[in-house]
Each structure stands twice: as structure tokens, then as C-alpha cells.
Amino acid sequence: MKALLIDDEQSNLDNLRILITTYCPQVNVCGAAADTRSATSLLHSHQPDLVFLDIQMPEQSGFDWLRSLSRTDFEIIFVTAYDQYAVQAMRLSAIDYLLKPVSIEELQAAVRRAHQQHSIKKENQLLNNLRHFLKGNNTPAEQSIALATLKETRFVKINEITRCKSANNYTTFYLATGESLLICKPIFFYDDLLRQYGFVRCHQSHLVNKASIKSWKRDYGDFLVLTNGAEIPISRGKKEEVKRLLQN
């Protein structure tokens, strides 16, 4: 993987480059930047697969820089001296959050996860291109999605998915057959894709197929009851949106 290092302190850049070169042979450092303006230029010229990003920097934070980009088709590993940003980092779908001074073992583990995610993403893109080519103008009920587990890539018809449940950077797909598939991607990666096929985001951790909903239960909280008996919580902040979507 091609990697870009971004940190406003040159000593941190040098140390990180040495650690990566010595202990992470699957990574090739293609550039380093001490500010986000230089980072944007290097991003366009090198198109890295992985970015090691500091958070607190002059002029613009690492978070703000990511939000300013039109595309973030690379994996992200935050490297920072502060531990209070972990939740924000995970919301930006970061692979990991490393504290300075960087542990060799934690760095290697983060790079392994980034490499796995990068490989799955490449495979999914190739399969997705093939799927669109083969399926042509099929109806939404016939559309399939490529789901890459650790052992295989499954082509699953979207109308066979009853719900999705997230746990950190992983999503479990529950199928009408009773089978479940664990995918190494966060749930919001699939949110926009599946909404166009009638899925409802009723909770931060849950995405439900409208066709699988049997009723709305109010008993010490709000729940969607599915045709298979599963009860999925509705968060307070999602109630109005869920009502609107179910009425359409």
C-alpha cells in the first residue's frame, strides 16, 4: 500500500517513517506533509491507499481536513498525542487510533487491518463493476450486493437481507434464510446504498429492510418487530424519521 504521513512536527514524521519502513513491509511511504495544504497536494499527486494523520495541527485539524475533501477513498490511521478524540475518529471510519509514542505492536496491528480493508475494497469494486455489467437493467428486487467476508465474497440479493447490525467497524448482515454474514465495514458504508431499496436506519447500530417489518412495539422503549420475531430498537433521535419513512 502507498502511504502518506501527515504531522506538523518533523521529528514525528521521521520517527513514523522509520517505524513503518522497519516493521511494516506491506507499506510504501510515498510522501510526508507538515500541513494540510501540502497534504492535499500530495493526496492528488500520489493517490495513496493509506494516510497516517495527526489531529491537532496549525490552521486546520486532521478532522476538518478530512471533512473538506470531496473524496476519502483511502484508509485512515490517526496518530496523536491525545486520547479524547477516539469517538470522532471512529465516526470518520478510521482503521485505528494510535497514541504517541507509537507502539510497534499496535502499529503493525493497525497496518494489518488497513491492508485487509484495502484488499476487500479493491475486490468489492471489481466485483461490483462485474455485477453491474452482468445484471444490466434488472429490477431492484433482483439487484445483488457483493459482501466480502474473511473467507469468501457472497453475492446476496438485496431483498433477501432483513437487517444489518453494526459493531464498531464491522457490520453483520442477517438474511431471510436465517444466515448471518460478518463484514469488515462500518454500517454507514451501506446506509445510502440500501436506503434506495427501502431500508430504514432506525438506530445508530441498526438498518432494517421495510419489507421485513411486522409492527412497531412500544414497551419500555420503541422497537420495530420483524416478521422473524426479532425486535430492533428505535433510538429517540430516529423516531420521526422512521415514522416518515414507514408512511411512504
From TrEMBL:
Residues 145-248 form the HTH LytTR-type domain. PROSITE patterns: HTH_LYTTR, RESPONSE_REGULATORY. Residues 2-115 form the Response regulatory domain. GO terms for molecular function: phosphorelay response regulator activity; transcription cis-regulatory region binding. The modification 4-aspartylphosphate is found at residue 54. Keywords: DNA-binding, Phosphoprotein. GO terms for cellular component: cytosol; protein-DNA complex. One of its GO terms (biological process) is regulation of DNA-templated transcription. InterPro entries: CheY-like_superfamily, LytTR_DNA-bd_dom, Sig_transdc_resp-reg_receiver, WalR-like. PANTHER family: REGULATOR OF RPOS, RESPONSE REGULATOR RECEIVER. This is LytTR family DNA-binding domain-containing protein. It comes from Dyadobacter chenwenxiniae. The lineage of its organism: Bacteria, Pseudomonadati, Bacteroidota, Cytophagia, Cytophagales.
